Amino acid sequence: MKKFRFALALALTAFVPQGFAQDVQPIDGIAAIVDEDVILQSELDRAVRNITTQYGDRADQLPPVPVLRRQVLERLILVQLQTARAKSTGVRVGEEEIDAALAAIARQNNLTPDQLRQQLAADGLSFSEFRASLSDELAIQRLRQRFAQSSIVVSDGEVDAALANQASGTQYQLANILVALPNGATPEQIATAQDKIDGIKALLDRGEMDFQAAAVRYSDGPNALEGGDLGWRSADEIPSAFTNVVGGMQAGQVIGPVRGPSGFQLLQLRDMRDAAGSGASQNVTQYQASHILVRGDDAAAKARIDALRARVGAGEDFAAVARDGSDDTVTSGQGGDLGWFVHEAFGPQFGDQVSALQDGEVSAPFRSQAGWHIVQRTGTRQTDVGAENRRNQMREMIGQRKLEDEWNRFLREMRSEAYIDIRPAAGVAGVTDGS
Predict the structure, then answer these.
(1) H or E element, residue 380
(2) Pairing mode, strands 170-180 and 263-274
């Protein structure tokens, strides 16, 4: 099966949701009840098969089947809960957004949208189910964005302190193993988790298992089936429990266990790289311009834009013509003013038109995906955006670190509050019916 690369913050890379299978099998039971919805056994079976197919000749790295089924079922449960929460809080995904996401997937795989549809059909995948799953992923992404906007605050003081303490541009490739603890864990649960993480660390210390295999087999983290991979991170994106020690680690070294908000963790430093240069000056050309937009690409739209260009050419004030005739409701009230922007801000085609003008000059009509434009360039300047970019990047790093902790806590709370009944048909290990 061809694997498509999703350009979505929450794209699910480790399993294929219901309907993403090459074959359709009859429903043979319920694996779990999640509030008012269900996860079918056939859905769980397909997701597990996809995992084993991805691992291929490395299947020996996977945990025993009952444990693997538990890991995959937990992912399905969380997806179900997030989708339901998104819908209940008014998150809606429009058809145009889904179309844009499908076009992005096609581009990333060097396909046209029609070729993507044909490839899905050739692989035996239902396009309607593919589209529905994509809609769910977009809804979850929107839910996460709303959560971040309402829950995550990064102050200027935090940014200032982080920039002052930034010793280098080094980035770290990390992996972790998590032994999770429930909210309000009892002393017995804490002791059991401590014994488990200590046992995993002992296996690693004796060389009986490498870190990636141990993460796949034992970790409770959402990245377990990816070998615990956390990707490349700067010091400001590393979990706070490890920030002070990771700089002194060697590649391959494992530290921990350390208890954090989610439970006990082991952290491995896989590699380091120099990301220096982020503090250099970044001089860019910015343009100041106004535009008039006529939406549409038919003869009538072309006639309108020509008429508006003729009025400007006859001496009418550009801003007055924009207020009177532009279809851009955002800028028409300001006479079409776009403010200061860089070349790529409104797409390369628009930027090429503006950069070809002299200050004060008005373009001939030209077409973009939005419709027909005429542009008047009113100024240019060279600006060092390095300092601003560094602050924005640091603010985003701090925000992402906070969001990761808070979002995981939110998911744990959401799962603990839900009615979840895992049925014997699921064939999973380590769970009991009803939660």
Answers:
(1) strand 371-384
(2) antiparallel
pTM score:
0.59
| Over residues 288-303, mean pLDDT | 91
- Distance (Å, rounded) from C-alpha 8 to C-alpha 432? 33
- Residues 419 and 340 both lie in one domain: no
Assign residue 366 the CATH number of its domain.
3.10.50.40
Q: 144-174 in b/e burial notation, b at 16+ Cβ within 10 A?
A: beebbeeebebeeebbeebbeebeeeebbbb
pLDDT in tens, 308-352: 999 999 999 999 999 999 999 889 999 999 999 888 888 888 988
- How many whole angstroms separate alpha carbon 363 and alpha carbon 80? 52
Q: How do the residues of the chain divide into helix, strand and coil, expressed in percent and rounded to 5?
A: 50, 20, 35
Structure tokens at 185: 């864990």
Query: How many contiguous H segments (helices) and E segments (strands) does the chain have?
Result: 13, 11
pLDDT of residue 9: 32
Same domain for 147 and 214, yes or no, is no
Residue 21 is which amino acid? A
| E strands, 254-370, in order | 254-259, 263-274, 283-294, 337-342, 366-368
Tell me, what's the pLDDT at 275?
62
Q: Please enumerate in sequence order all residues whose Cβ is within 8 A of that of 301, keeping only pairs 6 or more positions apart, or say none.
A: 294, 295, 371, 372
Question: What is the domain extent for residue 306?
Answer: 283-384
Q: Which of 118, 151, 184 is the last residue of a domain?
A: 151
Alpha-carbon dihedral 102, 108, 109, 115, rounded to 10 degrees: 40
Strands of 37-40's sheet, edge to edge? 37-40, 30-34, 420-422
Contact in structure between 394 and 159 (CB atoms under 8 Å): yes
Indicate whether 272 pLDDT > 70. yes
Closest CA to 397 of 243, 222, 265: 243
Q: What is the mean pLDDT of the chain?
A: 83
Domain count, the chain: 3
